[in-house]
Structure formats: C-alpha cells, structure tokens
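User:
Can I borrow your eye for a moment on a structure tokenisation matter? Would you put together a sequence-and-structure record for a protein of your own picking? Please set it down just below, with no commentary around it:
AI:
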Amino acid sequence: MTYLYKGYDRQGAPLRGRVEAPDEQAAARDLLARGVYVAFLRPLAAAARPLAAAARAALYRELGALLASGMPLDRALALLRDPAADAGGASSSAAAAALERVAAAVREGRGLADALDGAGAGLAPYERAAVASAEASATLPDALERLAGDLEADEAARASVRSALAYPCFVALLGLAVAGAMLGFVVPAAMRSLEASGLAIPASSRWLVGACRLVVFGLFPLAAALGLAFAAARRRARRDPAAALRLDRLLLRLPGSRFAVERAAERFATILGALVEGGMPVPKALPVAAAGTGRPALADALAGATARIRAGEAPAEALGRVPRIGPLLAQWIRVGEAGGCLPRMLRAAAGRLRARWRRRLALRLALLGPILLALVGAFVLALALGLVLPLLDVARGIGA
C-alpha cells in the first residue's frame, strides 16, 4: 500500500513524499530506518478508484477458485496481490490497489463484503448483498463463481446493446445533422424562392416542414435536457436514499419496466435461495435479499412483506402481495414451502427469470436497430415531401 508522509531528517529539514509498505506500522519503521522522523502518515486515498465490471468478475472468479481449494481468505488476497500473478486478471494496477485495501480491512476482522465496499471497489447493491449472503451461509466460493458469471453475462449484454446501437445511432445522428443543415439553410432558401416566384406553397408542405423543425429544434433538445436531468437525479440518488426511492418508483411506472422487475426478481430469488440453503430463517434473509435487488422501490415493498412474515403470515402469501415482484415468485415459494425444498425452487425460479430476461433482451436488440432506422427514414421522407410537393404543383401548373 502507498502512504503519504511528512516529517524531518536528522538535521531538522522538512521532508515529504510517499512510501510503499504492507501497513502503517511497517511504513513508519521503514521511514525511521531511513532517518525520517514522521510527523504525518496516511494511506494514499487517491488510488481508490472503482473497478470495472470485467475486473470485478476476474477478481471474484480467481478469489473463488482459491477459496474453493481450501486457502484462507487472507492468504488468497495476498496471492492475488502478488505482482507476479496474472497481469491481465485481478492483479492489474487498479485491482491491485483495491486488493491492498481489501486485505488490510480483512486483517482488521471485517467481512469480505464490508472490505470490498469500504475499499471503493464499485460494488453494485446486488454484488454486496450476494457476497454478504454467501459469507453468512458459508457458500462463498460458489457464490463468487456465480457472481463472476453474472457480471460477465451483464457485460456481454451491455456489449451487445452497444454493438446493436452503434450503426443505427450513427445513422440517426448523421440524419439529424443533415436535417438541421437543410432546415436551417436549404429549406428556408427554397421556400423564399418559391414564394418570390408567386407560387403558393401547399399547406401540407408547411405542416411537414414544421413537424421536421419541431423534431430537430424542439424534441431533440428536449430529449437531451431530460437526459441531463436524469443523470443529475441519479447522482443525487447515490447520496440520498429518499431521492433514490422516489426516482426508482418513477422509473418503475414507465412502460417497459417489467424488464427491470424480472431482473430484480431473479437477483432476489438467487440471494434468498442461497441464504435459506445456508440455514438462515426466511424473515432474517429477506432484508438482505431485498437489498440485493438494486431497486429501492422493490426493497421498500419487500420490507412490508418482511414485517408481515414476522407477524405470522406465510411467506408465500406475504410475498405474493408485493407489487410487481410478488406474482413472479409467489407460486415458486408456495411449492417450495409445501415440499420442503424452498432453496431448490428459488434457484429454479431464478433460472427461469434469467432465461426470460435474456430472451427479451435479444428480442429488443433485434428490433431496436430496424425501428430506429425506420424512424430516421420516415423523418427524411417527410422532409423530402415538404420540398417535393410545391414542385409537383409547379409541374401540374406547367402541364395545364
């Protein structure tokens, strides 16, 4: 770990700089051996940068493999910090700095989930809940392997979205740029020329050109402003739980939110199944699994179900009344309770929801590109018709 220090040499001259050491005591001893009397020493916090999803997946997979072999957690973290380890995996520069902080927190007695979160590794709520639930149920190696697979699947899905949108977005932006130039320069000049020639411009042409102006100079800037407002709301939600709850409730009212709800239900079922399989009672496991959904609105609704279960209501009945997420899982939980196989049924529910989510993602990606291209084509056609219709009237007048 890197430490910043300030101090004095034997002659009293001020010194400052950085020193590499496994902990603060070792850093102080190293500086004293160099003849530096330390007045100030602290870890270099600037190195704490969130890890990318691919780096976290590599870390989980490597750490899970070491733990599965029987290696203690502190030794596994020390091995992953070794510069001689695979440079393309979890021991790359950013991950090595995070692992240094994680190892220090583990040596202090903190759990892996708290250590990763405190090290600024950039864990999503689902990841933190999954690691915490695995620690509580003593299934950490398997859970880390599953978590690595989920992160890699999510990264592959994001890559598919980017690939599917690259060409349509390029065409759309190019079309908007050309349309802006035409509406700003070409169309006004053509309209003025037609009016100067005494030709009456048809109302349909005026309507079409006006609609195109509204899209380019009205709706597009409005969409950009809404995007900036949403980004600001997301930043505020990271700091304010109440704002996060309000924003999530709003997002879940939008069309197409069922796609996000199914993803949250799949995560909830995965974590709840792991906790129950590890021996944790359902009322105690529910808050952890609810936090793992990554959706504050759903977690808030699940908190009410937890209170009803603690009051004596059956889990299947209480969860079945939770909006959105309940109907997806209630029957699986009811069968699992009746058959004494709740963890297995929750895993089956998570697998079914995961497969459905991937099918819907593939379908949306297949349709998104053609729809966007069709909209751009319709826009260009409307603009072209706005210019062609007056010329058709001129041709009819000449023919008459």
